[in-house]
Specification:
Blueprint lengths: L1 E5 L2 H13 L5 E13 L2 E13 L5 H11 L8 E2 L7 H11 L2
Antiparallel strand pairs: 1-3, 1-4, 2-3
């Protein structure tokens, strides 16, 4: 899985749909969050939308490149979290969905 945040529902939807359309992700889930972070010496508290991108581990570098190319943030969150297990049928679907 790859995690990122976007400034709006529309931005997250566009990024997630682009990843799925490009077969880089089997699924992208959006969740509203409130983020507290330090940026350029100031503390910010902002609403964001977390995007959870479901993709096989071997697709990470391509997903990262896509996010960097299409994201509006100067330095977007792009964090990989390994999937260490799960329902075999779901994991198979994820692999099949993202294969070219």
């Amino acid at each position: 899985m790859v995690l990122t945040t976007c400034e709006s529902q529309e931005a997250a939807q566009k990024l997630g749909a682009g990843l799925v359309k490009a077969k880089l992700a089997a699924c992208a889930q959006m969740h509203p969050v409130s983020s507290i972070y330090s940026w350029k010496g100031q503390i910010h508290i902002d609403p964001e939308v977390r995007l959870i991108i479901k993709t096989p581990e071997d697709m990470y570098s391509r997903v990262e490149a896509f996010v960097l190319e299409h994201h509006s943030y100067e330095v977007p969150q792009v964090v990989k979290a390994p999937i260490t297990g799960g329902l075999a049928a779901y994991l198979d679907w994820m692999e099949q969905t993202t294969s070219a």
